[in-house]
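Revision sheet: structure tokens.
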Amino acid sequence: MDPPCVFLEIGQSSLKVLKGEEGLELALERTPSGGLTKACRERLIARLQGFLKKEVWQPRFRAYCAIGARGVSLRRLTLPVTPKESLKRILALQVESEFPLPPDALAWGYRQIDSADTPSHSSGAKQRLLVVAVKKEIIAEYGEILSECGVVPVFTVAALARRYVWQHLPLSCALLDVGRNTAELIPFENGVPLVVRVLPWGGESVTRAIADQLGISRDEAEQLKTGLAQDASGNGGSGPRVQAAIDAALDSLVGAINGHWTGQNIYLSGWGAQLKNFVPGLARRLGNGTQCELLNLAPGEGRSAAILGLRTATANGKESPLVTLQSNPSDGSVALARPAPWKWAALALGLAILAATLPYLEAPWLKGRLARRLQAIQADRGRLVAIDRDLDFLRYLKQDQPPYLDALFLLAKAAPPGTKFDSISMNRRGDLSLRGSMRDGQQVVAFRSKLIDSGFFSSVAVEEQTPTPDRQKVAVRIAAQWKPANDRQSLSIGPTAEEIEKAKNRPKDPPPGAFPPMDMGPPGGMPMMPSRPGGGMMPGTGRRMSAPGSPMMPSAPGGPMVPSAPESPRMPSPPPAAQP
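Predicted:
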């Protein structure tokens, strides 16, 4: 759907707007240099935004703006027929020579009028162009205001737009628009404008003439001017004097017109031409059979001749005969075409078709990706069999693994200083038997108590306790049975966090002057014994244990003697029971 078009006429003292059937008229305040005051600009922006009521989601309106004739220049140029690519360059040179300002300082436009009598295919073919120019700064100020209001302005001259209000105008005539303070005259010859002039005469001229003739105030003179329908006697004998003042004002207007037009037809519009007897009085004074005709416009705000001419000239949506003013004209006759509604309809239809067919297009689009994913899943499914088999084996090892290391850890942790283990045997059924020597019977009792308090063993019995031949130690033989796996699940066996941290922080190198640590390994050339049931390092104690029958060696200065053995094959599962 096309956005609504807005039509504006920007005069010297007022701005008129028409949007659809709604109109608006705003007064303008100008500085001595001719520009709008800051307060006037702010008021215009606020009022126009409220009048246009443009939503954020709506496209920008197109605003056709007709500016006054003040500062506007018309030129008719005859140039050789050239391609459009080079016409712009040649015309820019002509504009620079015809106008007092360079083309970059002007907002100008052109359109082709017609061709000369010489055929276009001959070498001397000519073309006539109408060029309209105005200072760029004049329309730049209006363009900034309208851009802030959310519209795209297209500028032309109001005097040219008024011609299209009449459907059947003669080719040679003149248009006179009478405003409040000035009048704009544009004569046409064979349908081509000759010149545009701003006459210093308007409705205020009549008001001042009446005020000077009767010696009254401006407001009283305005009331008398608009009340000419009253009888002369009703004004206390002032009726003839008022008419005399109006006739004198018309004489000054006729003098200004005769200097620019001597034709037969003048068409009038504007606020000042609505006075009673204005049209016939002007025709009588012009003489020479001149005919004056007043355009009767529909009453209402924003319905001036220029605005109605703009709406008529742009109603068909095709190339308009109006000359638009641009900083950099693109071609000879600029088309004021409105956005085609079928483009939006085609876009909406395309989106609807895409939304309806998207579910059906998704299946073939994703078919290749799904096929690759299925192939990957099928390939991984074959690996699942091997993974499950390995997982079951690891679970079996974890569940059926005897707690040999846990038992050795508890024995090493409970052993008092000076303890010597001659042999240790364990089997998968949980039977544990050990032989060794301790310092005295109290250590044997303390050792047994610690094993029972650990909760790991269901029974601990001292089967034999005899003094050694040298009477310095006690030889002991102990038998124990660890608890089933279900009863051991709640136990926390292993080094604590403090013990692990203490082992990490233990210095590796002895301090200066200290004795070097004793060799904890086997005698020279013997390999280290692996940590397994029946031999290896006692976890958490630093003591080394060996299989039964291996020679003894000290684990550390002042520590118990533990056996050591050379490297042997890994013990099969389950390990064989040690001989008592």
